[in-house]
Amino acid sequence: MLLVVGAGGFNATSAGGAGSENKAEGVLPLVIQQVLDSSEGGISMFGNQYAMITLVAIVRNVDYSSTKVTYQLEDHTGRIDAHFWLEEDGAVNTPSIVPHSYARVVGSVRNQGGTKAIMIFKIDQVSSPNDVTTHLLEVLHSRYKSEENSKRKVESSIDSNSNATSNGGFMETDSVGASLGLNGKQLAVYKAIKSHVSDIGISRKELQAKFNHINASEMQNITDFMTQEGMIYTTVDADHFLCVDA
């Protein structure tokens, strides 16, 4: 299966440098060529900055040293080295990955002497070919979801300016909150979850950072309420959320 992902909004920032103001967060599914093409400023797509990336690739070679394990990864778009740094007990913590098989890598991108490399946070053996196909679909979905969210932000900004002007400077009441039965804080959290682009969803920690005026107990009540109402659901654990109709 050959999949080539167009650059599109990859590494693009919105007008006026707004993209550079976004705090890096979340995990973005990519293919290797996208990592190699990324800017030194970090991984971004349509103005959204990401802290880590995930990719699925063949492990072509494994090189062991006293401080790290280097995996040479390859997919249909290119090759890249990924480093897993060892703790003091060394081999005990070395992931068991079979060469010439597929692996899923989660990590951050670093520029070492002009060459991109991945600092591995987690690496797992991929046992099913379906995982490879699923990852490629996630790459496409994330790209188009990012583009859609970017367009929504622009349209929302235009609509907000239009409403402010037509109402003498007073904004119209958001009908979305009323239709969902959400108050101001609940609606703000709901929108943050819905607009977040990641295959594992937004974390409770990221939500708390976005809304530091909402204490942890109140945030727990808000997410519990929306989960019980079927508006959001948890993903990899009880502290990561995706919107049902995202």
Automatic annotation (TrEMBL):
Listed GO CC annotations: chromosome, telomeric region; DNA replication factor A complex; site of double-strand break
Keywords tagged on the record: DNA replication, DNA-binding, Nucleus
GO BP annotations listed: DNA replication; double-strand break repair via homologous recombination; nucleotide-excision repair
UniProt keyword annotation of Nucleus present: yes
Compartment annotation: Nucleus
One Pfam family it belongs to: RPA_C
Biased composition (Polar residues): 157-168
Location of the Replication protein A C-terminal domain: 159-238
Single GO MF annotation: single-stranded DNA binding
CDD domains referenced in this protein's UniProt entry, alphabetically: RPA2_DBD_D
Region (Disordered): 148-170
Keyword Signal: no
UniProt-listed PANTHER family: REPLICATION PROTEIN A-RELATED, REPLICATION PROTEIN A2
Family: Belongs to the replication factor A protein 2 family.
Protein name as annotated: Replication protein A C-terminal domain-containing protein
Native source species: Anopheles atroparvus (European mosquito)
